[in-house]
Amino acid sequence: MEPMTNMEALAFSCGEFHYEGKHYVMLEKPFTYTAKDIFPYYTANAVCEQDACDEDGYRPVYTIRWIVTNEDQLAYIAALMEKDKAKAFEIFQETGVNEDTIDCNYDHPDHILETEFKYNVDQLRQRYNWQ
Asked: What is the per-residue DSSP string for 95-107?
C-alpha cells in the first residue's frame, strides 16, 4: 500500500470540501468564532489544490467562513455571550453542542477570501516527521 500524499494526509487530518468546481483542503480544523454584535460563524484556513505552486512549492492560503445555522449551537453561543453558564451547561447536557461543535455544510461556505499568506504542503512531512 502506497503512503498518502501530503495533500491527502492534510485532507484526512483537517478536512476538505469542494466549492464551485475547486477542491479545498483545510490547514486546520474549523473553529467557532463569535463576539458581541457578530453573527457566529465557523472559520478555517485552506489551500486550493487547483492553485499552481510557485517555484518554492508555495500556494495561496484562503480564509473560509461558514455561518452557524444549527439552532442548538446558536442557543449555546447566546447563553455564553450572556454569561449564563448554567443555561449553556443545560443546552450542552440536552444537545451535546459546545464551543467546539462544528455543524455546517462544508460545500457551501459563506465566503472564501484569499489572504496574503502562502503555504507549502510538502513541508508538512518534514515538520511532522511523516514516513
From this structure: H---TT-----TT
Count CB neighbours of 10 within 10 A.
Answer: 21
Q: 121 and 10 in contact (C-beta within 8 Å)?
A: yes
CA–CA separation, 131 and 115 (whole Å): 31
Contact 77, 83 (CB under 8 A): no
> Can you name the residues that pair with 118 across neighbouring β-strands?
60
Q: Is residue 131 scored above 60 in pLDDT?
A: no
Total-model pTM? 0.84
**SS3 state of residue 72:** helix
Positive or negative: CA dihedral 123, 108, 39, 94: negative
Find out whether 93 and 81 touch, Cβ atoms under 8 Å: no
Q: pLDDT band at residue 70, thresholds of 50, 70 and 90?
A: very high
Summarised one tens digit per residue, pLDDT across range 13-59 is 889 999 999 999 999 999 988 888 889 999 999 999 999 999 988 99
